[in-house]
Write a structure and sequence with these properties.
The protein has helices at 16-19, 53-59, 77-91, 112-118, 144-163, 169-184, 193-201, 205-211, 215-221, 223-233, 267-286, 304-307, 310-321, 323-326, 347-359, 374-381, 385-390, 419-422, 424-429; strands at residues 36-41, 47-51, 67-70, 101-106, 121-124, 255-259, 296-300, 328-334, 363-366, 398-403, 406-412. With 430 residues, it is of the alpha/beta class. An eleven-stranded mixed beta sheet has the order 2-1-11-10-9-3-8-7-4-6-5, with helices on both faces. A hairpin with a 2-residue loop joins β10 (398-403) and β11. The longest helix is centred in the middle third of the chain and has 20 residues, at 144-163. Bound molecules: adenosine-5'-diphosphate and magnesium ion. Magnesium ion binds at residues 77-78.
Length: 430
């Protein structure tokens, strides 16, 4: 007997009342199986949900590898990040056989176990402490133009935040001249912030010529900038950024965790420290030494601190824009959707910063939000009414994922040996 090819299944009989509830073409398309397993997609019948920002970027599904993770305290944000890192750093590499590189800005001091598990260096930064990083030390980049741009961008962001006002055109220009002078005439070691402060007090003749003022006049005009830098150099935040780095970071290694918990309780200090630390990381990432760049994650936990001021929100936005150039997936973690509306001076600037950040972030992981955030979720994140209404209903560990134009509702799964990485409940209970 000739058996026809194909699938052979037992015949199934049902009433039209039951069959009327079957929607065979209703399953979500999902993101495919490339990437690491994070949990189950409840929109595609509980199928495995796998994700890797770099893979989707390479496939053209995403035009930016950045991610935003939003959710109430305790909703499971850090768990999403830690399990993603733990699984992808262990399993997926980078082109050229390099390992993935991970940098975490950890304002709550909760990544120690993750650092241990992934072999990341753990650096504890605290005022008056012994670990120093020099935001101007330029990593291993040898390109003077890259160095100049990075250093200027960073020092302008720091001083703007320290002064809590926009820089005058002269202050802005003078910082650029000072950084150029320090970058063009290397002194056997990378410049430090104190070198810049010294040049502002005692400008070079070239700086004086460029300003059109006399040397004492220029020094007087720049005194506020110098005094502002003093906060990091000899006042309350000294001992973290005021000298040569005490650590060297191997860009070909695994990466690092910067524990910032010592300044967590002071939002302004945290903001400054985050700007200085991301600037330092940026310079490491900019200088991958010409070879193929590894795929890198930069995790910015508690990113609301940077969003709390217009200057630093703009800095963050610029950092996100650079992600593609440096092969970095930024993973920003914040609480409320309204955090994205930085407390900027006027509505237009605010809207622009939020829109710019979101435009460079095509993966949004939305965990539980209060009902008061639903309207903003629709407006800012472009959710449908049904998607936005889902947010207050999400249980711990469950998230609405928007990945470019794809949608999933994921129940995140924690493996038994991952509990020590994520169990912040247990730590709080101690
Ligand atoms: N997917 C999950 N499965 C089981 N428990 C979870 C899950 N996500 C979070 N939790 C629990 O919730 C706690 C808080 O999660 P966490 O990720 O630290 O929250 P958040 O970063 O949003 O404040 C964790 O310590 C864990 O006990
Ligand atoms: Mg957290």
């Amino acid at each position: 007997m000739i058996v026809p090819p194909g699938l052979r299944l037992p015949r199934h009989r049902a009433t039209t009342a039951n069959l009327g509830a079957v929607y065979p073409f209703q399953a979500s398309q999902g993101l495919g199986a490339r990437g690491v397993y994070l949990g189950n997609d409840l929109l595609s019948g509980g199928g495995a949900f796998c994700y890797d920002p770099f893979e989707l970027y390479t496939q053209g599904v995403l035009t930016s590898p950045n991610m935003l993770v939003l959710g109430e305290i305790g909703s499971g944000k850090s768990t999403v990040v830690k399990t993603l890192l733990n699984r992808s750093v262990g399993v997926l590499g980078s082109p050229g056989g390099l390992p993935r590189w991970t940098a975490v800005l950890d304002p709550k001091g909760e990544y120690e176990a993750t650092a241990e598990s992934l072999g990341l260096a753990l650096l504890r930064l605290r005022p008056g402490g012994t670990t120093r990083i020099n935001p101007l030390d330029g990593g291993t980049s040898t390109d003077p133009d890259t160095l100049l741009t990075e250093r200027t961008r960073l020092i302008v962001a720091l001083v703007t935040e320290l002064l809590d006002r926009a820089l005058t055109p002269l202050e802005d220009a003078a910082l650029g001249w000072a950084v150029a002078a320090l970058t063009r005439s290397p002194r056997g070691r990378p410049p430090v912030l104190a070198d810049a402060a010294r040049l502002l007090a005692d400008p070079t003749s070239e700086m004086v010529d460029q300003s059109g003022l006399t040397a004492p006049e220029l020094a007087r005009e720049l005194a506020p900038v110098r005094h502002a830098l003093g906060k990091l150099l000899d006042r309350d935040l000294r001992g973290m950024f005021d000298g040569p780095s005490t650590v060297t970071v191997n860009p070909g290694g695994r990466g690092l965790v910067l524990d910032l918990s010592a300044v967590h309780s002071d939002p302004r200090a945290l903001r400054l420290v985050m700007v200085a630390a991301t600037g330092w990381l940026q310079s490491i990432m900019a200088g991958s030494g010409g070879g193929p760049a590894p795929r890198r994650y930069q995790v910015l936990e508690e990113v609301w601190a940077l969003l709390g001021s217009e200057h630093t929100a703009k800095y963050l936005q610029a950092t996100f824009k650079l992600a593609r150039a440096y092969g970095v997936a930024n993973i920003a973690v914040a609480h409320r959707i309204s955090d994205l509306q930085a407390q900027a001076d006027d509505g237009t600037a605010t809207a622009k910063v939020a829109a710019g950040l979101l435009a460079d972030t095509q993966t949004r992981v939305l965990l539980r939000q209060g009902p008061d955030q639903v309207a903003q979720a629709r407006g800012l994140l472009g959710l449908t009414a049904a998607e936005a209404a889902l947010l207050p209903e999400l249980a711990q560990g469950r998230a609405l994922w928007k990945v470019a134009d794809r949608t999933a509702v994921v129940q995140h799964r924690v493996a038994p040996d991952e509990w020590p990485l994520i169990d912040t409940n247990a730590r709080l209970a101690l």
